[in-house]
Design a protein that fits this description.
10 helices, Rossmann fold, globular, 2 domains
Length: 304
């Protein structure tokens, strides 16, 4: 994998994806040489809240044998003094061998990469992209159902969900059939639909999960974001229609897996957790070996 930065799944080829997933599977099975990264430092710059992404990157670097430094909260950083993102990047790259960046502005990671001489890894940029989430999603899918003749349903907030946008582009690279299920107000943005069409994606849009549930290998559920609705009643009406329960999965294939990038609110009932379909906690755990693999591949040129 010959890349300076990881900014978007649009830029990843199928070979890139397979390389990361193969390395992650190898790490999960055999571990890695911790001495190789004894002097390596990963900087964590999170301008938005994070639990899984931040902690799994922290864990990944430490399991590789390196260390991390953390900007901490925005309120405790020089950002509150008016420091620009470009200047922050210029400073932090002098302290670390790579930078993981989460930022509320779409395109922030790409802009940061123009000022950095160390690898920038996009950990989420507004409603844009979240490529490392997609890599762990794909790892979960490949380990459970494989990539051959794959049918994936993606349900919930498709308009603002960066995990959805990243995953859709990546699924196009592996020729998966994609079914997008959402209320009309939260369907995929026109720009994303255009890009998928240009790339030859096999895409269908639906408002009702029952129309496609029996055909799916994977159901990827996302949170419908209450904060996007000016009317609380409108939110409740829509959210109630897109809730997965044990009863809702009665017509699903026995081998269907249910995924969710987390955190969930009430879009997946707790009763689903104990079914054979649930994979969202396994999915979250996969963030460590996948991010270990990605860091290993990005940093090996720096450590050889």
């Amino acid at each position: 994998m010959h890349r300076e930065h990881v900014l978007s799944t649009k830029e990843l080829s199928r070979d890139d994806i397979e390389t990361v997933l193969d390395r992650a599977a190898d790490i999960a099975h055999s571990g890695t040489d911790r001495s190789r990264y004894a002097d390596t430092i990963l900087a964590l710059l999170f301008f938005e809240p994070s639990t899984r992404t931040k902690m799994s990157f922290d864990t990944a670097m430490k399991r590789l044998g390196g260390t991390t430094i953390d900007m901490g909260s925005v309120e405790s950083s020089s950002v509150t003094k008016g420091e620009s993102l470009a200047d922050t990047i210029r400073v932090i790259e002098g302290y670390a061998d790579a930078i993981v960046l989460r930022h509320p502005s779409e395109g922030a990671a790409k802009m940061a990469s123009e000022f950095a001489d160390v690898p920038i890894i996009n950990a989420g940029d507004g409603a844009g992209q979240h490529p490392t989430q997609t890599l762990l999603d794909l790892h979960t899918i490949r380990e459970n159902v494989g990539f051959d003749d794959l049918s994936v349903g993606i349900m919930g907030d498709l308009k603002y969900g960066r995990t959805v946008h990243s995953l859709a582009h990546a699924l196009t690279k592996i020729d998966a059939r994609q079914h997008f299920i959402s209320p009309e107000s939260l369907r995929l943005p026109r720009s994303v639909r255009f890009d998928l069409h240009e790339d030859g994606a096999n895409v269908r849009e639906h408002t009702d999960l029952d129309d496609v549930l029996s055909t799916l290998d994977v159901l990827y559920v996302t949170r419908i974001q209450r904060e996007r609705f000016p009317d609380e009643n409108e939110y409740r009406e829509v959210a109630g229609q897109y809730r997965i329960t044990e009863d809702a999965l009665e017509d699903a294939n026995d081998d269907l897996i249910v995924m969710h990038p987390l955190p969930r609110v009430d879009e997946i009932a707790p009763g689903v957790d104990t079914t054979t379909h649930a994979r969202y906690f396994e999915q979250a755990h996969n963030g460590v070996p996948v991010r270990m693999a990605l860091l290993d591949l990005l940093l090996q040129g720096e450590t050889q």
